[in-house]
């Protein structure tokens, strides 16, 4: 995708992109680039019809300075008048509008969260020139010396192109975690979804991040291979991660939003989506083959049916497998109750399945949506799209 130069554009005010990892919920979101430089993955709706452009470093600096000024205002208020309340916020932000108000509330949210982490947006901040990225990191360290963690998304193709020397410099400058969308380790699946990377590239990029001394978080998408490639997707993804041994493995179960190429393939019968039960079976197979890592595995997303599938490998493998087996062992009716309750945010774990008040709410929802064991997967598909 052609990049748009923004070097001559005037500063338009503070910006934030549309997404961040769940693990960065307490982070300041600082936008270095707009949208995604690849933007071809068949399953992703986030940057559809949006062109990529890097933001000028001077504009990013102005964002940082805006946040810093607001933090100073909050600090002074608390020191002289006590804790901030909603009336204080209304008063302090009354003269602000548009991007200025966005900066104000971004700063406030970060201030309340303890100001310990910063996430550099959007989809691939490492695509910036190394010198520009180093300038931003240095600015952040100088303005916010208390920050303990700075993180960013990056694509394996981008990491593969960066020299080890430059990546090491970025790590030394303060970028301590990189989030990579591995999605799959199967070359067939990666080609099918137009990921722009193959297994070998994923491995090279992951190892390069680790060798640079930067924490690595790899994202895996259960269900991405559909029925035709489910086993291969599980096994080859595990094999890829066995080679990399990332610090974190994060599961993000496939959902297929309208308007994506994958949705079109699904409607035309070219892609057969897995049911919740089949996804659970795929995760079980994945865990069986994930046998050479010391990673922390997390299922920290609403799209995941079984968030309890989490722990540190290899010691927690049995516990994670037990959760999957427990779900698969339920009767069809009990699985239906859990699926509906989980997708509506009523249940967070299998242990809540028999809690009276929650079960009554699930029962009411089951009746309202007219959900049966025969249509549960169709309804679940509709509910999952709400969380993309």
Keywords:
388 residues; alpha/beta; two-stranded antiparallel sheet; 46% helix; TIM Barrel; 8-stranded mixed sheet; 10 strands; 11% strand
Characterise this structure.
The structure is a single chain. The protein is an alpha/beta fold. It has three domains: 1-119 and 127-138, no CATH class; 155-329, Alpha-Beta Barrel (TIM Barrel), CATH 3.20.20.70; 331-388, no CATH class. It has helices at residues 57-81, 86-93, 98-113, 130-143, 156-161, 164-172, 187-192, 199-211, 230-244, 261-267, 276-289, 317-328, 332-343, 356-368, 376-385, and strands at 28-31, 33-34, 53-54, 117-121, 149-154, 175-183, 215-220, 248-251, 296-298, 311-312. Strands 1-4-5-6-7-8-9-10 form an eight-stranded mixed beta sheet. Helix 13 crosses helix 14. The chain is globular. Mean pLDDT is 95; it is low at 1-7.
